Amino acid sequence: MAQKQTTRFTTKTVTTLGILIAVTVVISLFFHIPVPGTQGYINLCDAGIFIAALTFGRRGGAIVGGASGLLLDLLLGYTQYMVFSLIVHGLEGWVAGQFGADQRKGRQAIALGAACLVMVVGYFISDSLLYTVQTGLVGIPTNAFQAAVGALIAGPVVARIKHHVGPELNA
């Protein structure tokens, strides 16, 4: 009977993901803009999530997404969003990594678009549950903007990482 193969993260990969979480949180703490209409904020979290997802695949994207989203909400005082951010940004990272980690540009663009949609819909649902449907609707353009900026930043960063570091990144 054949055994199921599992992918394990190396110590180097776990360390790199931890650093990506820390960098994502620090950059997002420095560059965040409160959005009064939604009780939330715009930040650069999605760039870090997409960099992790396109570099390390779905598991790396989910880990960086969930952890950085939760930590940001905790540190910025948006504790009502912590669990939602864990789920929404974790799923966003998973989707981007599942469909975009194979390095084909067209596929990466579609994966990032799908991940952006996951984030926007996820926060629409979150805002609607926490506040009102109107609050969820107000958040759509700001969340879409945040996700798009993250995707635009991540694309060239990942290309440079893969060019300079190459396949030994996961070794």
UniProtKB/TrEMBL annotation:
Q: Which domain of life is it from?
A: Bacteria
Task: List the keywords (alphabetical).
Answer: Membrane, Transmembrane, Transmembrane helix
The parts of the chain that form a coiled coil are: none
Q: Which residues cross the membrane?
A: 12-33, 78-97, 109-126, 138-159
Pfam families listed in its UniProt record = ECF-ribofla_trS
> Which PANTHER family does this entry report, sorted A to Z?
UPF0397 PROTEIN BC_2624-RELATED, UPF0397 PROTEIN SPR0429
Report what the protein is called.
ECF transporter S component
